[in-house]
Amino acid sequence: MRYFIDELHKHVGQKVELKGWVFNSRGSKKIKFLILRDGTGYCQCTFFKGECDETSFENFSEDISQETSVKVVGTVKEEPRAPGGYELSAESFEVISKSVDYPITPKEHGIDFLMNHRHLWLRSKKQHAVLRVRSEIVKAIRDFFDGRGFINTDAPIFTPSACEGTSNLFGTKYFDTEAYLSQSGQLYMEATAAAHGKVYCFGPTFRAEKSKTRRHLIEFWMVEPEVAFNDLYDNMDLAEQFVEYIVQRTIKNKAEELKVLERDLSKLEPIKGSFPRLHYEEAVEIIKKENPEFVDGDDFGGGDETIISSQFDKPVIVHHFPTAIKAFYFKEEPKDSKYSLSCDMLATEGYGEIIGGGQREESIDVLKTKIKEHDLKEEDFQWYLDLRRYGSFPHSGFGLGIERTVGWICGTSHVRETIPFPRLYGRNYP
Amino acid sequence: MRYFIDELHKHVGQKVELKGWVFNSRGSKKIKFLILRDGTGYCQCTFFKGECDETSFENFSEDISQETSVKVVGTVKEEPRAPGGYELSAESFEVISKSVDYPITPKEHGIDFLMNHRHLWLRSKKQHAVLRVRSEIVKAIRDFFDGRGFINTDAPIFTPSACEGTSNLFGTKYFDTEAYLSQSGQLYMEATAAAHGKVYCFGPTFRAEKSKTRRHLIEFWMVEPEVAFNDLYDNMDLAEQFVEYIVQRTIKNKAEELKVLERDLSKLEPIKGSFPRLHYEEAVEIIKKENPEFVDGDDFGGGDETIISSQFDKPVIVHHFPTAIKAFYFKEEPKDSKYSLSCDMLATEGYGEIIGGGQREESIDVLKTKIKEHDLKEEDFQWYLDLRRYGSFPHSGFGLGIERTVGWICGTSHVRETIPFPRLYGRNYP
Prior knowledge:
The structure is a homodimer. Chain A is of the alpha+beta class. Chain A folds into 2 domains: 2-97, CATH 2.40.50.140; 118-418, Bira Bifunctional Protein, Domain 2 (BirA Bifunctional Protein, domain 2), CATH 3.30.930. Chain A contains 12 helices and 18 strands. In chain A, the strands form 4 sheets. The first copy, chain A, has an 8-stranded mixed sheet, with helices on both faces. In chain A, strand 16 and strand 17 (353-359) form a beta hairpin. In chain A, helix 4 crosses helix 6. The longest helix of chain A has 22 residues, at 125-146. Chain A is elongated and about 85 Å long. The two termini of chain A are 34 Å apart. Chains A and B meet through strand 1, helix 3, helix 4, strand 6 and strand 7 of A and strand 1, helix 3, helix 4, strand 6 and strand 7 of B.
């Protein structure tokens, strides 16, 4: 039987064997401590001279260095002072494999060094906590949609045409033709929404952006729900309930990890109920007070987003962005075509945009005009236009970027720590 | 408030508005029937002359063609004879958008025609059922691992080097260098297993194979668990429990869909408990009885897999494949280096291999020799070798292909119907 540290509470008083890696060790002539990590948690193993195997005690300091893999046998005891609340009263240990000169030590390392050793850096306490939070967020996202009757219909990564221009796209030879790596599954979700009503896709997306900001990754994960017959306002309601669910569930289920990350929970707890909603022009007014050079009609920069979000203790939804700065598929506001039925959600504390979405154009004639206006080729969109030819329907959806959401909830300033193996401009290793 | 067909049982006796598409309609002078689909289910709407809105009744046949999007208002009634058990006693309907000459009719269509219209074909009853089963299987996979303390640590799609040769790889320009699209996240999961103990990745993978078989896709989804300190036998136990869980849960939760697909459940029900396990040489003996030309030491072809699986009513695990036909990272059997600590699982009824995996080599020296023997460059594997330098550990894992699993459980002969937008040799549209 395998025993894991996170299940020791079930085995108090029992003799167990743990396998893992040395996180830390110290000792005197009479007692030695080893903090073992097995991935599920950290466990203090206590070796008393005379009570444990003699060889184990003698060889302790010599054999054990950081990240050595070991097997420890001992009895589980409740110990409120130990990390996790339980410790092992150890009988013996056995080295499985040594670790000499482990490169990541408790001292400070530069970010390039850490990123080059990402495969090992992942074992560090903070990185460990971030990825556990990420895993919980992924699960929360899926549970939210699955629990509401959404069907997971994944979009393809290979796409035949460059729907929004080739500038930020990765291309590849696809046998005798060229294919592009998807930047969004949305257009495909519009097709599956007509088949399943409520759908989402959840996968990696790719943007070949030559930018090095703390909010950008070359390869990032996105979840994109789409709902048939939802309008812009239904879409904002859905986004709001969704983000509340993710945040509140993560606070509840990953309290220990958020503590390791020293996250100020008082900033996350208020994220429930309805969120403030601003028309684009209302948002512009707020921005202009602090950034008078902002040009009405432009898209927001990272700084502008921070100006808006700093006004509220909940995420803010900005809607009705100018039609001119939005993609061809957005529906225009019927009362004023200058504005689109779009909405973005900005996270609190300046963590920036985490959601972008809106209502899609359902008229085939308007869509054809838009495709032309955006210098796109109508022939590339025949299948997409079919969705308007055969029982067209109002529909809305949005995309939420996973890494930004993880960064926000963890309080991590740079998205590079929110994904196991980040791909950045200039980095594709390890 | 939005009403969905799959929740009508909660609203018996209430007046509701449904939005969806016309699946079917028929009628006489006194009564008209419309089968509405909204993605969550199918609902019979009954219009009695004199009891419903007069215009609705008069315009019924003229306005309503297959896939027209409509709004229907009526009262929910229990009706055991209706599909789903409930029907709408309709007051009125309203056309949202017409559908003229919908290309997919109840008559037979060729497969190329259907694949070119995949964005519409998805709406058909059988395709609808397959993707609902797929969504359930995805959820079951995640629930299985999440419920057992595994952490979801996704592997990158962009990889810097071609770990197992470039022949079946898609390459892309990654700024100033070349990147390849991942064929497997396994090597990365070995790194995250050292951080989290029990991990899995679940994402799309890519193989540029110029083959047109019913089992191959260019782009397919794979889930890959990896467990620190698990050996080959632990790995087979895990694979067994995992497949039982997926199959039994899908039978239970997607009974209606499997009925639509006319799946013979008596073939799936026995898939529980331990599965037969065959050493490679035992499997070879079985194959040779029916295929005397099979060469001992070779890998199995699709036909050979069918010979084996036809002997059993449960999936079969074949283990200890010859070292010579396996990738460099497989650990050799300590008692006989001719064989590797590998295992594949073959589905029942000739659906072929659904799982491949095994125990990984943990000795850095053996691994370096293997890398050389496989004509790979050691420099490409520095980070991977680090996992053996610093606290190396026995570990095992496997990969399960989603589309083959969906095809098997649905009883669908070709994997192209098991993913929303299949990518095949010669196909990257829609």
